[in-house]
Each structure stands twice: as C-alpha cells, then as structure tokens.
Task: inverse folding
C-alpha cells in the first residue's frame, strides 16, 4: 500500500529539489501517494496568507510531510511560515544529523546529531520594550518542555543505535532556567541507563564540535543553543546543500532541508538536492522503511566517494537532474 504524504514544493529552488527527491524515493521502491499543497510567496499573493489553513490541516491529517523551503514575505505582518507550522502542530523536536559525506570536506569526519527544543526558550516570542531604550526578552523554560525533549533525545538515540546523549546547557550562569532544563534531562537519563550520559556547557560544546565532534553523540539542547550549534554543524560538513532536518511532534512530523529558497540560483537547474534527499531518508526511517533509507544513504555515500558527479555548490558541474539521475541509477544498481 502506498503511503499518503503531504508534499509542499515551496519557493525558489524548492520545486527543483522536491522533484528530485520524489524520483529518489521512487527509485528506492517506496510507493507514495504525494498529496501536493502549496505554501509560500506565490500563495500569499493569491490568498493573502503564505500558509493557508488547508495546508496545515493536510499535514495534520497525513501526519507526515516533506517540505521544500518556504519564504515568508517581508512586511504585511506575515508570521514566519516555518514558525507557524512548528507551533500550530507542536513540532517540538528539531532533529539535525550532522554527518560528513566522503570527499566533501576532508578536514572533518563528523557523525553526530543535534536535537533542539523547538517551541520554548528565547524563541517563545516574549519580548517587550519595558522603557524607552530598555528591551527585555523572556526565556521560557518549562518542566514539561524540557522533559519531553530529553525523552525524545534518549528514545531517538536508542532507536538509531547511538550510545551517548550529551545535555548541552549554561546552567552555571542561568541557574534557574537552564538549571530546570538540566534537572529534567538528568531525571529522564535515569530511565535510560543503557545510554551513556554527557553534560556540557554550550561554549565548551561549540569548541568540542570543532575539535572532536563525535565525542558528543546526540546533543540535546534548548532552542537558541540548538539553532547556533546546528549551523556550526552544517559548516563542519560542507554547507547548506547537504544538511537534512526534521521537525517532529507527537502528532505530526515535517521533514525539510536546513537551507532556504536560495533565490540566487532558483530555476537554473543546479541546486543540490542532497539535503532534501537526506531529509527524505530520515522520513523513510521514521515510517519504518529502514531498507529503503539505507539504500539511499549507501548510494549517496558511493556517489560522493566516487566524486565524479557533484553539483556546483560543491565544486562540480552536474545539474540537479544529472545528479538525481546518477543517484537513482546507483540506488537501482543490483548489488
Ligand atoms: P531564504 O530567504 O529562503 O532563507 P536565502 O537567500 O537565505 O533564502 P539559503 O537557501 O538559506 O538562501 O542559502 C544561502 C545560499 O546558499 C544560497 O543563496 C545558495 O547560493 C546556497 N545554497 C543553499 N541551498 C543550496 C542548495 N540546495 N544547493 C546549492 N546551493 C545552495
Ligand atoms: Mg536563509
């Protein structure tokens, strides 16, 4: 039976990398009934909203979405599409595997994961100007939010065969808020004795990511630290063209690349689809399609190791469709 998955092509290079990813999933032998819904700039022009309600309802109904980058129109009082989707569907866990592909950046061989809390912290949007010239941002930390993200990280580690979770915090300075998050994570850790536990202050974690990233295993951390460390991670493994991501809640999950719509190269046919393809690998594993996920991942590794077919962002000359064709051929090659 085919999976029913909501597909949001998005803006800029979105439709190009989305089409490529559909081909790859199909080459891996997974039947999907893609339910296409549009969001973004063009939709805002037509409907007045970049994220119409039916799109949110469709994600909620199918519980799984694959999403291209969506640009939030500037001005007009639009809320960020990505933030709205995360908050409305309570997609509290942002998961970013940071993994080197062979030959892309030989200085590093990284294999770690960042699990970022997606709904609280300084990103809860509680900001005010308390006096002229004095602004205040409130960092919101709750026991419920801190516990469920820690629980998610430990379960993720177990499910994906990872032996260590590192709690990243700044509880030495923010004793009350980060102190609460740290306490919650430690309590959760007690219930997972088979997973090795690490704790690290966020500044030390930044240095460790650059010097010895694989020591960290799965990082679990609050919103702002996770945001910054994720981009550091993307930089470590060769940039935006390859880093995948997922936003996961109890009722729905949205899989998307870390990069934006890249308007400078949109429509030219040379965007790198690897980031969204790797997001689709996460999606397939989320659905329990481990064989298909493994096949795509192996094919990507083989293709990058051979080094013949590369898109321009990584110094090659291949177009999006050249790359996709080579990847599909590798996936379909009898082993
Ligand atoms: P947005 O406003 O939607 O976030 P942006 O201008 O910030 O878009 P990003 O997509 O975030 O653009 O990335 C910045 C730059 O990195 C792009 O302009 C593009 O040159 C490059 N880039 C990003 N993603 C890819 C990709 N998949 N393939 C090739 N180059 C990419
Ligand atoms: Mg951007």
Result:
């Amino acid at each position: 039976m085919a999976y029913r998955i909501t597909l949001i092509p998005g803006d800029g290079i979105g439709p190009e990398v989305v089409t490529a990813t559909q081909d790859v999933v199909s080459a891996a032998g997974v039947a999907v009934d893609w339910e296409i819904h549009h969001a973004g700039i063009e939709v805002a022009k037509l409907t007045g909203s970049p994220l119409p309600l039916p799109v949110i309802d469709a994600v909620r109904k199918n519980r799984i979405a694959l999403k291209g980058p969506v640009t939030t129109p500037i001005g007009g009082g639009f809320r960020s599409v990505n933030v709205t989707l995360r908050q409305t569907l309570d997609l509290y866990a942002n998961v970013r595997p940071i993994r080197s592909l062979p030959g892309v950046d030989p200085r590093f061989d990284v294999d770690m994961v960042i699990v970022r809390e997606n709904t609280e912290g300084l990103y809860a949007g509680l900001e005010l100007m308390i006096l002229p010239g004095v602004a205040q941002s409130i960092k919101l930390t709750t026991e419920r939010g801190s516990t469920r993200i820690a629980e998610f990280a430990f379960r993720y580690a177990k499910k994906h065969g990872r032996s260590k979770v590192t709690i990243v915090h700044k509880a030495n300075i923010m004793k009350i808020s980060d102190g609460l998050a740290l306490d919650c994570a430690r309590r959760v850790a007690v219930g997972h004795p088979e997973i090795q536990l690490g704790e690290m202050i966020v500044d030390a974690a930044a240095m460790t990511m650059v010097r010895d990233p694989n020591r960290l295993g799965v990082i679990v951390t609050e919103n702002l630290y996770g945001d910054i460390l994720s981009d550091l991670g993307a930089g470590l493994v060769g940039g935006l063209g390859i880093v995948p991501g997922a936003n996961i809640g109890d009722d729905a999950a949205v899989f998307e690349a870390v990069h934006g719509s890249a308007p400078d190269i949109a429509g030219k046919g040379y965007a790198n689809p690897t980031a969204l393809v790797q997001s689709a690998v996460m999606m397939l594993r989320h659905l329990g399609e481990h064989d298909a996920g493994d096949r795509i991942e192996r094919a990507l590794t083989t293709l990058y190791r051979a080094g013949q077919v590369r898109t321009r962002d990584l110094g090659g000359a291949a177009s999006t469709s050249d790359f996709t064709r080579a990847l599909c051929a590798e996936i379909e090659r009898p082993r």
